[in-house]
Amino acid sequence: MLKILIFNALLVFHPIHVTLTSINQAPDNDTLEVFFRMYHDDFLLDYKSYDQDFFIEKESENIIIPDDLINKYFNDKVQIYINNKLLIGKLLTVSNDNYEICLTLIYNSEKKPRKFKIRNQVLINLYSDQANMVYLNINKYEDAMKLTSKHYEEARNLR
């Protein structure tokens, strides 16, 4: 009986490994706006595996990573393709507290995209249960995707 209670308690306290990405493009606009959110501690672990030279002091609460390094990390970990062309994002904002980090990026796209593909490799090397949720809203085309450690790429025809 005690084993069952302990097992159930462990399930309740198990961390959730999830990121959220929202990709929006208004009709007849050539700009994609991407909003990305993940847990701050997961970001630091993933960034450390991405940049082996990155050092975290355990005592430090405010770990600052320069915006240009965050921008490079995101562009390397999350690739967005429109009409088979890889887009490069430009970081606009970073909101960071001890719980979550939120990024807003802008991508130059095409006014009338026909094909969309995303490859999201954030945290997939750290957690086997990783879920990278993607909400897509491009030119009135809406869809949601769940990307995982084993299935980290999706493509959509937008017409």
Plain-language structure description:
The chain has 159 residues and is of the alpha+beta class. It has one domain. The protein has three helices and ten strands; from the N terminus they run αββααββββββββ. The strands form two sheets. Strands 5-6-2-1-8-9 form a six-stranded mixed beta sheet. A four-stranded antiparallel beta sheet has the order 4-3-7-10. The protein is globular.
- Overall mean confidence score, pLDDT: 87
Strand order of the largest sheet: 5-6-2-1-8-9
Helical percentage: 10-25%
Low-confidence spans: pLDDT under 50, at least 5 residues? 3-14
| Structural class assignment | alpha+beta
Order of helices and strands: HEEHHEEEEEEEE
Radius of gyration: 17 Å
**Tally of contiguous helical segments:** 3
Strand content: 35-45%
The count of domains is 1
Biggest sheet architecture: 6 strands, mixed
Q: What sort of overall outline do the alpha carbons produce when their principal axes are compared?
A: globular
Compile the SSE list and pairings.
Elements: H1 2-13, E1 18-25, E2 31-39, H2 40-50, H3 67-77, E3 78-82, E4 85-87, E5 89-96, E6 100-108, E7 115-120, E8 131-138, E9 141-148, E10 153-157
Parallel strand pairs: 1-8
Antiparallel strand pairs: 1-2, 2-6, 3-4, 3-7, 5-6, 7-10, 8-9
